[in-house]
Amino acid sequence: MFVYNFKINGSKVFKIFFICVVIIIVIIVGIVSFRIFNGAEQSKNSPCSPKNGVSVISAKNYTNILKAVHENIDSYVGLKIQFTGYVYRVADLKENQFILSRDMIVSSDFKYVIVGFLSEYDNAKDFENDTWVEVTGEIFKGDYHGDMPILKVTEMKKVDAPSEEYVYPPDESYIPTDGIL
């Protein structure tokens, strides 16, 4: 009959446990670092990141961005954006002004309101109401019944209506960042 006798040395058990914990922490830090730096790399290529200094706005984030710009105009002055919408005019706009508009669904039975950026373009009169356009321009602070972000259009071209004509109300998970879309 064989009897095995194990002597447990508290000092050795502590050292092994400590080494295992350190190895686990190093692995976790490595994984987190990889995800952070890899995510930062991927976000540079996201649809909303600036390309040639111009932030391209999609239908999915349009109302979030519109809300953020209206709430904190000064942070977005000078930002160049590109977006597709339709020309909409109201009676008290100047000849060179229009609203770069989208229809925002506000109820389950598809009731909508018109939302958009007040825009200025020297040749705005060449584009009729309800004409779909793609514009590129720069945000500045102007006055239209109070402080208002105004998009000074530098490029404007007629386009076909997009597949996503409607936009949805801003979600509460959107956290605007200072001057970055």
Structural notes for this entry:
The protein has two domains: 38 residues; 114 residues, Beta Barrel (OB fold (Dihydrolipoamide Acetyltransferase, E2P)), CATH 2.40.50. It is elongated. The C terminus is likely disordered. Helix content is 27%, strand content 31%. The chain contains three helices and seven strands. It has 181 residues and is of the alpha/beta class.
Low-pLDDT stretches are 43-49, 174-181
What assembly state would you assign to the polypeptide chains in this entry?
single chain
Question: What's the CATH topology label of the largest domain?
Answer: OB fold (Dihydrolipoamide Acetyltransferase, E2P)
Count of all domains: 2
Residue-averaged pLDDT: 82
CATH hierarchy, class of the largest domain: Mainly Beta
Fraction of residues in β-strands: 25-35%
- SSE arrangement, N to C: HEHHEEEEEE
Main sheet, how many strands, which sense, barrel?
Answer: 5 strands, mixed, barrel
CATH superfamily of the largest domain: Nucleic acid-binding proteins
Number of helices: 3
Strand order of the largest sheet: 2-3-4-6-5
Secondary structure class reads alpha/beta
Shape verdict: elongated
Share of helix, binned: 25-40%
